[in-house]
Specification:
alpha/beta; Rossmann fold; seven-stranded mixed sheet; 11 helices; 14% strand; globular; SAM_mthyl_Trfase_ML2640-like; SAM-dependent_MTases_sf; S-adenosyl-L-methionine
């Protein structure tokens, strides 16, 4: 079903399915012998969502006739997810080491950084997402007996609504520097909504605040091509994923350019450069991720 201006979702439908797919990638990446990340909550959260294909992918329950194809598809995507996750992990830990004690994770999905990263005392992590997503994750992690490693504050609001007001009402202090993440988010916003998001972040950011995000020069095609391929290959296995209905096309300003013009000091690295920084080679031979090689990881500091 195509997106609308006031659509909503849970973690088994629409945009929420992509959040669960990303968590599958983190779960598989955490199992690698030379793992870049350790997310012990990813797999149980995915299982709790209950998308049969993803559960069978995690637990080895796929039909043998498609298991090899699934492994060949999941491998490159898992590598991309491992490096992306580690990039954002390190961004937050470096911000904390610099003295920033206020974190905002936009469109948090099944992100478990409030539970799995080693935060300094006094760190507050705000998670913003749809009410159903926030409620599901909070309840599931409580049932797992998970304890946050920082003070976790949830902000159940759609990013298309007045989320800055909801964030303030949750205790956010805009006079203090903040570390912001917009991970895997921008492509699911209309171009004008992307600009509004950055405007709001800028207005809420004290000097010294930091922001990490990613920009796809190929636009919606970069993510649509890779995820559409997954959906086509495994539709008969019960995976209902049509990325063409989820992302917003249209010309959008490069994130780094927009932030620079609005008072941020911006640095960017290509996906292949980020891979190299972690001693990995981008899987160029894998068609499913080929267009993602041009993605740019952005870090910005508010002047």
């Amino acid at each position: 079903m195509a997106r609308s201006d006031n659509d909503s979702w849970d973690l088994a439908s629409s945009v929420g399915t992509t959040a669960t797919m990303v968590a599958v990638g983190r779960a598989l990446a955490s199992r690698q012998p030379d793992a870049l990340i350790d997310d012990p909550f990813a797999a149980p959260l995915v299982r709790a969502v209950g998308i049969d294909f993803f559960n069978r992918l995690l637990d080895g329950g796929l039909d043998p006739a498609v298991a090899a194809d699934a492994e060949a598809t999941a491998g490159p995507m898992t590598e991309v997810m491992a490096v992306r996750t580690r990039f954002f992990d390190d961004f937050f830990l470096q911000a904390a080491a610099a003295g920033i004690r206020q974190v905002v994770i936009l469109a948090a999905g099944l992100d478990s950084r409030a539970y799995r990263l080693g935060w300094p005392d006094g760190n507050v992590v705000y998670e913003i997402d749809q009410p159903e997503v926030i409620e599901f994750k909070s309840r599931t992690l409580a049932e797992l007996g998970a304890e946050p490693t920082a003070e976790r504050r949830t902000v159940a609001v759609d990013l298309r609504d007045d989320w800055p007001d909801a964030l303030r009402r949750s205790g956010f202090d805009e006079t203090k520097p903040t570390a912001w993440s917009a991970e895997g988010l921008l492509i699911y916003l209309p171009p004008e909504a992307q600009d509004r998001l950055f405007d709001n972040i800028t207005a809420l950011s004290a000097p010294g605040s930091r922001l990490a995000t990613e920009y796809h020069p190929d636009g919606a095609a970069a993510l649509t091509d890779s995820n559409q391929s997954v959906g086509r290959r495994f539709a008969d296995q019960g995976l209902d994923l049509d990325m063409a209905d989820l992302v917003f096309a249209g010309e959008r300003r490069p994130a780094g350019e927009y932030l620079t013009e609005h008072g941020w000091q911006v640095s960017g690295r290509t996906r292949t450069e980020v891979f190299a920084a972690y001693g990995r080679s981008f899987p160029d031979e894998a068609e499913i991720v080929a267009r993602l090689r041009n993605s740019v990881a952005i870090e910005a500091i508010r002047a």
